[in-house]
UniProtKB/TrEMBL annotation:
PANTHER family: CYTOSOLIC PHOSPHOLIPASE A2, LYSOPHOSPHOLIPASE 1-RELATED. The keyword Signal applies. InterPro entries: Acyl_Trfase/lysoPLipase, LysoPLipase_cat_dom. The keyword Glycoprotein applies. One of its GO terms (molecular function) is phosphatidylcholine lysophospholipase activity. Catalyzes the release of fatty acids from lysophospholipids. Belongs to the lysophospholipase family. It comes from Aspergillus kawachii. GO terms for cellular component: cytosol; endoplasmic reticulum. This is Lysophospholipase. SMART domains: PLAc. Its EC number is 3.1.1.5. It catalyses: a 1-acyl-sn-glycero-3-phosphocholine + H2O = sn-glycerol 3-phosphocholine + a fatty acid + H(+).
Length: 557
C-alpha cells in the first residue's frame, strides 16, 4: 500500500507516513475490496482492463497518477459470472497478469475469436476441431457421472470455459479451486483472497428472488453467511457425504469435486441464453442438432443448474429446512438475484472491509449500459425485513432513474462517505461504471465471439474506465488523488485523524450528495468520449510466459 501511495499525489498530506505511523495496529490500516461484476465477455474484458490498471506488474501502471498497486493492496477480490471467469483465469494460472493472458497465438488462452460454441482452433479443419472438442467435453463429464456423481449442464459449460481460460490444451480437468490455497504466493499474502459468488435455488424454482441464499467460493471453503445456511464446508472435500457438518464414520472423503471450470461455470450458468445462441453459430448443422437435443434434455430434467451432490449442508444444524433436508444442493448464476456486483461477501461484518472499488459492467439498460441496479439490489437486501441480510450494512443508494438523470453511471461516484450516518460498519463504495471512453463497450452479454482487436479494445476501455481515460478526461485530473482519499476515509475515522483539505475537496466532488431525481430518464445512449487516451493496447504481443497452472485433484482419491 505504501508503494501505491508513493506514486499518488496527495498534495501536502503524506499518506506513506500516515500508514507507517499506524502500522503497529493493523486494524487501523485500510482494508480494501475490489468487486468485478457479471456480464459475460463484456464483463471479463472490461474488468480485465480495470485489474490491469490496478496491477503494479503492468507496464506504466505505477507512473505518477496511476493506480498500479491497488490490486496488491487489496485484501479481497470478488467476481461473479463473467467477472468470475476473469478471477478464475488469473488465479488458476498462478495469479498471472492480464497482459500475459492477452495472447496472440492460436491454442493459447483468451482466444475469444474462436467462439466457445466451436472450441479452440488447431491446424486442422474447424469442423473436425469442433467435433473433437465436444467429444472431449462429453468424455470428461461422463467420467464424473461414472464416478457416481450427478451431472448437469454446468458440467459441460464449465469444461467449455476452461478451454478458453485455463492454460492447458485439454482445459485442465484436474485443476481445482481449492489448490489456489496451496500456492506459495497465496500463503505469503501476496495476492487478494479470491471470492466467487453464486446463488442458491430450491428444487422446482425457476426465478431467483432477493431472499435466495448467496454462496461464496474461497480457496478454503464453500458456503454462505446468510441465515439460511450460516456455515461453510471445506472446499477441498466437496463431493464427500456430509451429515450435520461431518463425514460419518465409515464414509470416504472425496477430493477433486471443486474442479476450477465447474466452479467458474456455477457462477455463470447461462443455460437458456446458451441454447438460444446455437442458431447463430456456424457449427455444422448435424452437430448443432445433436447438441441442441442434449441441452434440451438437460433442461427438461431441470438440470440447467449446478448440482452439488451430496449436499454438504445436509442435516446441518444451522440450515433451514429447505436446505437441511435436500440431498442435492442446486446453485446458479451469481447475478440471478439482481446483485450483479459481487458485493455480498465484501460487506460481511467479519471482514471489516473499508472501501470497495466496484467495477460494474452490467447490461442494465436496453443498450447494455449500467445504471446502478446491482447497488440498489444489495442496498435493498441489506434492509430486507426477513433478516436475510444477517447484520450486513450498506450505504444508502438512489434509484436507477437518479443514476441516469444525475449522470452517476458516467463517472466514478462514492457512496457512504459519511460513516456516522450509517448503522453498522458499512464500506465506502467507489462505483466505477462501464462507459465508452475509446470504444462502444456495451456488447451483448451473449456475444460469444470477440476478434482479437475487439478484445484488446475492450480491455483498453476498461483501463480507461478506472483511470479516467489514462488521466486525460477533462476535469478528472484529480481522480488518482481522490481514489486515495476513498481508500483512507474509514481509517481516518478510526484513528480520529482530521480529513486533509485535499480529501475534503475530493469528497465534495465525488460523493453522492443524497439528492434524487426519480423522473423517467431520457434514453441513455452515450457516445465514445475520446479517440485516444494514450493507451491503445498495453498488451505485449507474443509474451513467452510459460504459465504453470495450479494442477491438483482428481475425481476420487
Amino acid at each position: 500500500m505504501k508503494d501505491l501511495f508513493g506514486h499518488i499525489n496527495m498534495s501536502s498530506f503524506d499518506a506513506v507516513s500516515y500508514i507507517n505511523s499506524h502500522s503497529s495496529n493493523i486494524t487501523n490500516i485500510p482494508n480494501i475490496g475490489i468487486a468485478v461484476s457479471g456480464g459475460g465477455y463484456r464483463a471479463l474484458t472490461n474488468g480485465a482492463g480495470a485489474l490491469k490498471a490496478f496491477d503494479s506488474r503492468t507496464e506504466n501502471s505505477t507512473h505518477n497518477g496511476q493506480l498500479g498497486g491497488l490490486l496488491q493492496s487489496a485484501t479481497y477480490l470478488s467476481g461473479l459470472s463473467g467477472g468470475g471467469w476473469l478471477l478464475g483465469s488469473i488465479y488458476i494460472n498462478n495469479f498471472t497478469t492480464v497482459s500475459n493472458l492477452q495472447t496472440y497465438k492460436e491454442g493459447e488462452v483468451w482466444q475469444f475469436q474462436n467462439s466457445i460454441t466451436k472450441g479452440p482452433k488447431t491446424n486442422g479443419l474447424q469442423a473436425w476441431d469442433t467435433a473433437k472438442y465436444y467429444r472431449d467435453l462429453a468424455k470428461v463429464v461422463a467420467g464424473k457421472k461414472d464416478a457416481g456423481f450427478n451431472t448437469s449442464f454446468t458440467d459441460y459449460w464449465g469444461r467449455a470455459l476452461s478451454y478458453q481460460l485455463i492454460n492447458a490444451t485439454d482445459g485442465g480437468p484436474g485443476y481445482t479451486w481449492s489448490s489456489i490455497a496451496l500456492t506459495q504466493d497465496f500463503q505469503n499474502g501476496n495476492m487478494p483472497m479470491p471470492l466467487l459468488v453464486a446463488d442458491g435455488r430450491n428444487p422446482g424454482e425457476t426465478l431467483i428472488g432477493s431472499n435466495s441464499t448467496v454462496y461464496e467460493f474461497n480457496p478454503w471453503e464453500f458456503g454462505s453467511f446468510d441465515p439460511s445456511i450460516f456455515g461453510f464446508a471445506p472446499l477441498e472435500y466437496l463431493g464427500s457425504y456430509f451429515e450435520n457438518g461431518e463425514v460419518p464414520s465409515g464414509r470416504s472423503c472425496v477430493r477433486g469435486f471443486d474442479n476450477a471450470g465447474f466452479v467458474m461455470g456455477t457462477s455463470s450458468s447461462l443455460f437458456n441464453q446458451f441454447i438460444l445462441k446455437l442458431n447463430t453459430t456456424d457449427i455444422p448443422s448435424a452437430l448443432k442438432t445433436v447438441l441442441a437435443s442434449i441441452l434440451e434434455e438437460l433442461g427438461d430434467r431441470n438440470d440447467d443448474i449446478a448440482i452439488y451432490s451430496p449436499n454438504p449442508f445436509y442435516e446441518y444444524r444451522n440450515a433451514t429446512i429447505s436446505y437441511e433436508k435436500t440431498p442435492d444442493l442446486n446453485v446458479v448464476d451469481g447475478g440471478e438475484d439482481k446483485q450483479n456486483l459481487p458485493l455480498h461477501p465484501l460487506i460481511q461484518p467479519a471482514r471489516n472491509v473499508d472501501v470497495i472499488f466496484a467495477v460494474d459492467s452490467s447490461a442494465s439498460t436496453s443498450d447494455n449500459w449500467p445504471n446502478g441496479s446491482p447497488l440498489v439490489a444489495t442496498y435493498e437486501r441489506s434492509l430486507n425485513s426477513t433478516g436475510i441480510g444477517n447484520g450486513t450494512a450498506f450505504p444508502s443508494i438512489p434509484d436507477k432513474s437518479t443514476f441516469i438523470n444525475q449522470g452517476l453511471n458516467t463517472r466514478p461516484t462514492f457512496f457512504g462517505c459519511n460513516s456516522s450516518n450509517i448503522t453498522g460498519h458499512a464500506p465506502l463504495v467507489v462505483y466505477l461504471p462501464n462507459y465508452p471512453y475509446t470504444t462502444l463497450s456495451n456488447k451483448s452479454t451473449f456475444q460469444l465471439k470477440y476478434e482479437i482487436s475487439e478484445r484488446d479494445d475492450m480491455i483498453t476501455n476498461g483501463w480507461n474506465v478506472v483511470t479516467m481515460g489514462n488521466g486525460s478526461r477533462k476535469s478528472y485530473e484529480d481522480w488518482p488523488t481522490c481514489a486515495g482519499c476513498a481508500i483512507l476515509s474509514r481509517s481516518f475515522d478510526r484513528t480520529h485523524t482530521q480529513v486533509p483539505d485535499v480529501c475534503e475537496r475530493c469528497f465534495e466532488k465525488y460523493c453522492w450528495d443524497g439528492t434524487r431525481n426519480s423522473t423517467e430518464p431520457a434514453a441513455y445512449e452515450p457516445k465514445v468520449l475520446m479517440t485516444s487516451a494514450g493507451v491503445r493496447n498495453l498488451a505485449v504481443s507474443r509474451w513467452v510466459w510459460g504459465l504453470v497452472p495450479v494442477v491438483l485433484g482428481v475425481w476420487l482419491m
